[in-house]
Design goal:
Elements lengths: L2 H7 L14 H12 L10 E6 L2 H8 L5 H4 L3 E8 L14 H18 L3 E2 L7 H7 L6 E10 L16 H4 L4
Antiparallel strand pairs: 1-2, 2-4, 3-4
Helix pairs in contact: 2-5
Bound molecules: flavin mononucleotide.
């Protein structure tokens, strides 16, 4: 797919067909995009948890109770490892959230390239996920996304509501 086409095609999908699984090799290609993502000092301070088991999915859904999310056959969880991330010496800034966001972004575009729907979700209940996924104190969930094929009646938005370039760019 052309890069520009992919940029437009990726959109937040809030419709998933629960009867259509995403095959493991497709998920692996999506994960590979996260693996290849850049990170500060190449620390790769992340873990990608792929939830496909029905039992675990039921528990994950409790952290974000939306009917469309409940339909997703796969949930991808991006975990940042705070104790592995690069820290800027000048002011103590830790890059873990930035690194996790870059990996997540790469995987969302890889999913779109595979025709797989996704939706970045931050509005989850972190304590539920922490408990369900048995995370350590140094691990944090920074983003989750459903992965799945949209329902047959889903119409892609096909356009982006974005500020014009002139509003967000400053040439100096
Ligand atoms: C950091 C971040 C957090 C988000 N959290 C949520 C969320 O909790 N629930 C949701 O439905 N969408 C969430 N979104 C999706 C945004 O609403 C969406 O990306 C934005 O409206 C632009 O639409 P598009 O993704 O279709 O281009 C989130 C997106 C980002 C980048």
């Amino acid at each position: 797919m052309e890069y520009r086409e992919l940029l437009v095609k990726r959109e937040s999908v809030r419709s998933y067909d629960p009867t259509k699984p995403v095959h493991r090799e497709v998920i692996e290609r999506i994960l590979e995009a996260g693996r290849l993502a850049p990170s500060a000092a190449n620390r790769q301070p992340w873990k990608f948890i792929v939830v496909t088991s029905k039992e675990l999915l039921e528990k994950i859904y409790r952290a974000y109770e939306r009917p469309w999310f409940h339909d997703a056959p796969v949930v991808l969880v991006v975990v940042g490892k705070k104790n592995e991330a690069w820290v800027r010496s000048y002011d103590g800034y830790c890059s873990v959230e930035t690194d996790a966001a870059i990996a997540m972004t790469a995987m969302l575009y890889a999913a779109a390239n595979e025709g797989v729907g996704s939706c970045w979700i931050s509005n989850f209940n972190p304590s539920i996920l922490r408990e369900v996924l048995h995370l350590s104190d140094s691990e944090e969930v920074y983003a989750i996304t459903p992965l799945g094929y949209p329902k047959a009646d889903y119409t892609p938005k096909g356009m982006k509501e974005r500020k014009p370039l002139n509003d967000v760019v400053q040439w100096m």
